[in-house]
Design goal:
Low-confidence stretches: none
Oligomer: single chain
Number of helices: 0
Number of strands: 4
Radius of gyration: 11 Å
Structural class: mainly beta
Mean pLDDT: 95
Order of helices and strands: EEEE
Length: about 50
């Protein structure tokens, strides 16, 4: 699984490859709104989250 996190200006801030059962560490991100894109096999998911 390929997970990409983008800041509010569209800049890639974090890219992680997970093999299963792992978590994405966002502790180093500054507070704000982020977009996340997840590629899992042939499926793609997109969403947003707020880091407080």
């Amino acid at each position: 699984m390929d997970i990409s996190i983008f800041d509010s200006q569209g800049k890639l801030t974090n890219r992680t490859f997970l093999t299963g059962g792992q978590l994405v560490d966002v502790r180093d991100l500054t507070p704000g709104i982020y977009a996340v894109k997840v590629l899992a096999g042939e499926r793609a998911y997109a969403g947003r989250f707020v880091k407080g």
